[in-house]
Structures
1.
Amino acid sequence: MFDPKDLKAFRVQPGTKLDLSKCPTDWTGTRDARKLGKDQVKKRALALLDKSRAELAATQEIIYATNTNSVLIVFQAMDAAGKDGTIQHVMSGVDPQGCQVFSFKRPSEEDLDHDFLWRYAKCLPERGRIGIFNRSYYEEVLVVRVHPELVDRQLPSGKRDKAFWAARYEDINGFEHHLVRNGTIVLKFFLHLSKEEQRHRFIARLDDPKKAWKYSASDLAERQYWDDYQKAYEDAISATSTEWAPWYVIPADRKYVARALVADTIATAIRELGLKYPKVSKEERRALAEARAQLEREGETKRPKKSSSE
Ligand code: ATP
Ligand code: MG
């Protein structure tokens, strides 16, 4: 198992200034785990993923039954960091009726005609559900920050300076605080990939006909802005990792490590809510017993007579 103390290290403490160059992208566990070798580490990561996945499936049912809380899980990353695969693996045990995934691409004309949180607010999880945002309102301070001309599609001309972005961070913090105070758990994951691993994954996409569809010309174009994106992520995560809606910077160069860490973090956060199946009151228990007795009686009168040969 990965050491739970290690897992806490990926949470970005509120008020700290994040330096992504100091956060590992290739992490294999505790020092002891490193001595174990790659195969053993992978085995442990997969065991943790399995355990957390089973726990998630069970707790999701309790969230659905109690219908008082919802969970919003945000995934952000550079291209090819493995958002899709992580979502697929981590949520694979969860009842599809209790889970909603939304992938946010470039905004439509209608989206642009509204405030910058509008299209995301429309997709928030209902009470009792887990909602996953594959990219999110954070794009409004990431891709839009790297390409500030995108803001001009929406807003009157003006300065896009530090104060402008600080106001957006403040709006996001307020938005998330509002959600949390209304029973939503907000968890945010940045899958932290190295530039070199991205290069390998792009090449793999180009070489494999089954993966080529994933490649888009904009991938290479955006890669040229790597440093600008890292800076935008550092600023956004530093300003919006709060007590109520923390960010986790997850090492993503090894897919099995990223998936295990994400699954465990989500399972732990839900476990800490301490939700229990709703209690059945005395009257309800009496009604259930009466319903059961009625069904029993029905069976007795309708059951076909057994033939003597049976
Ligand atoms: P993959 O990791 O598999 O490439 P993806 O999430 O990058 O998946 P794509 O269809 O490749 O999906 O890209 C979606 C694009 O939409 C991204 O380049 C993202 O930056 C862009 N996008 C998302 N939100 C906005 C926004 N608000 N304004 C402008 N562009 C946006
Ligand atoms: Mg992409």
2.
Amino acid sequence: MTGVRGKLVVISGPSGAGKTSVCRALKQHPEVEFSVSATTRERRRGEVDGIDYHFLSRDDFQRRLGENQFLEWASYNGNLYGTPRWPMDAALGRGRVFLVEIEVKGTRQLRERGVEGLYVFIAPPSIAELRRRLEVRGSNEAAEIDARVAIAVDEIAAAKESVGGRPLYDVTLVNEDLPATIRAVEALLWP
Ligand code: 5GP
């Protein structure tokens, strides 16, 4: 470690709220590095192994979990997702902004462990709008959309929790308009 400390930014929120689009915009900034998660879920059309995710078998994921390779991990709708540990340490040591896009249970683990950072929750304007966005996106079947909407209801409630006397999230942004939401996150990062 060089003694230089970068900044961890956690972007979280329900599937369909727009957090991947927000992260895609933030990745354009040269000082931002992005965590590539591991997952056991099936690869969607257009996704590239090693770029969008590290797609792992369940056995491989469990083995890495046993080796303590993940900074945090969670089960989401029957699949496992985890943040590999070393890229964050390396990026922060170089003084970079390190972006992780994770769901709420993983965020809670980071807070519980006292991991310092800016924790941002991207919320949809409404559940009806969230469902509409998931339908328009077309990457999930109807049953999967129902499951994701049900998880979203729980996540929106959980986002209001506190962990150890601190709010789980520092900021909640309602993503009505994507460019405005991106500008709001940029203003938090580079005031
Ligand atoms: P999706 O299947 O839509 O790519 O992701 C499902 C959910 O898992 C999303 O809320 C996404 O942000 C979250 N997710 C992706 N990677 C990770 C990770 O490494 N850890 C945790 N806890 N959640 C993740």
3.
Amino acid sequence: MSGRVESILSTVGGTPAVRVNRLAPEGINLYVKVESFNPMGSVKDRLALGIIEEAEQSGALKPGQTVVEATSGNTGIGLAMVCAAKGYPLVVTMADSFSVERRRLMRFLGAKVVLTPASLKGTGMYQKAVELAETHGWFLARQFENEANARMHERTTGVEIMRDFPDGELDAWVTGYGTGGTLKGVAKVLRAESPGTKIVVCEPEVASLLASGEKQERGEGGSPAASHGAFTPHPMQGWTPDFISKLTEDAVDANYIDELKTIAGPDAMQCSRDLATKEGIFVGISGGATFAGALAYSRTLPEGSTVLCMLPDTGERYLSTPLFEHVVAEMDDEEKSLSDSTPTARYED
Ligand code: PMP
């Protein structure tokens, strides 16, 4: 995206598919779709704009009405940008286990952040958002069930992928799922326009909800009625909540998933670090996790195959998380000896 535009909202989407040069298995054309190029640094800027503009058009969202949503962060940050640019107040509910910089970012953009106890997991923050909407007459964005989420990916992400990989060039597309909006929207386009493309879906090893085959209990409007039995906490923020969302289940029911991969937390972290140090591509933990799945799947493919992997957000959002655990503020021994190797401005601590 470059040039003169009328609003920051015009810069949502249109992210590049970047070739992976040093980490790709030999003979594989591996590309990554770098969603940190969105204005607030994540794939969720697309959903935020899609949900708000569809609700404006349908009349579900009135001028000046407050928007409320349960979000682990990126959706809240995207919504905060969209609401700021369009003049809607925003309230987000968020479990207190998610990274502190996410809350601060949303507040910086003018949103109110209502914390919920981590022990109540994703369902707790969701129920709080529903209650707030009902009590105060606010517009609930419902990212996990709202078709506008998947439709935005169909119109933007899916179209961009077909433009960049036309004529059945793409052998596989690899993604994780949170709301399942990316999965459902892009998969619909791929099935229609590139039926030979295999759709590979990744989930955490310790929360392999889809692989378990266990059904999700649902309440009103497709919202989750209980935590899924296969869920345990995992480090891939934004991936697999403690329930299978309606949009994700739709993708399963439509047979959009050709292959499921489970990813271990340490592999996700390592891939995120490798992308940074060996490719100069700076992404978060879910990006590392999706890349781990893309590498594993690529190794099963014949030479000359082309694979595209989603990288949902920037690594900058994870400075206070285990992703940065190995990075210390002080100089290590190698840095100290570099300092000592010349006489000027040597550092004594
Ligand atoms: N990774 C991160 C960091 C996210 O914030 C999200 C969105 N929750 C995803 C992956 C998954 O995207 P989707 O909601 O479209 O399934």
